Structure formats: C-alpha cells, structure tokens
Amino acid sequence: MDHHERNHAMTDHPDTLLDATRQWLSALLDSADVDTIGAAHWWDRASAALQAAAAGATTLAQATTIAATKLQVDVLGESASRIVTGLAEVIDPAYTEWADRVAAEHVYMVALVRVERAARRAQKTNQPALDTTTAPF
Q1: For burial by CB atoms within 10 Å, which of 4, 116, 124, 128 has the most?
Q2: Quick one: DSSP state of residue 133?
Q3: How far apart (Å, rounded) are the C-alpha atoms in residues 106 and 17?
Q4: Cα atoms in the Cβ-side hemisphere of radius 13 Å centred on 46
Q5: Which pLDDT does position 10 carry in this prediction?
Q6: What's the predicted TM-score (pTM) here?
Q7: What CA–CA distance (Å, rounded) separates 17 from 40?
Q8: Residue 95 and residue 127: Cα distance in Å, rounded?
Q9: CA trace torsion 80, 83, 87, 89 (10° rounding)
C-alpha cells in the first residue's frame, strides 16, 4: 500500500485516528508521575501535551518526544513504549489529518481518555468510575 492509499484508507475510517490518539495519550500518561505533574494539573497538562505534540511535529516519534517533555516523562515504560511505537503505523501515514483533528478535537479527545482511565481505575479499585474523591488520573 503506497502513501496515498494509506491516507485514503485513514480517511475512510476516521475513528481509527481517534482510537489511536486515545491509546497514544493514555500510554504517555501511564508513564507520567502524578507527584511530578500534580493532580490538580493532570488533565490540563495532558491537553497541552497533546496540542503541542500535534502542532509541533511531523511524525509520531517527534510528537511523542514533545508530549513526553510536556508531561515531564524522561523514559516511557515498557508497555507504553510498545503501544506508542505500534501506533506510528496508524498515525504517521495520516499525520497532517491527525494534527488537524487534534487541533479541532483535543478537548473531546482528552475527555475520552479521562473517562476511559477513570473506568479502568474504578475497575481496579471497585469504586464508581466518576468518583471525584480520588486523584483524577
């Protein structure tokens, strides 16, 4: 499949980019430290990292470095590394489209990640998914 065919395939399935973005941001957040970022700034930093990464890069590798820097992550964890490197196959061929979607939809994208992470945390701790009495990550 050449570059044009891959870009065409991505626009045929716009949710693929959304899913990839959710996985990518969540993987980066898995490597972030709440004590470093602070619980009060967690989601603001996630949003800023997503926006800066998409706007300031031309590949997912560059975007990952930018976002990791914003999140004060020096090294991704093993699982996060596997996820991020695998997503390059999805995002890189449609990078311009991805960056445009992030610019237009970053608030929604972060909201999706927040809800998914709350549900994952609730499952681990047997608490309600939207319990506001615990840390927001």
Answers
A1: 116
A2: T
A3: 12
A4: 31
A5: 42
A6: 0.81
A7: 28
A8: 38
A9: 120
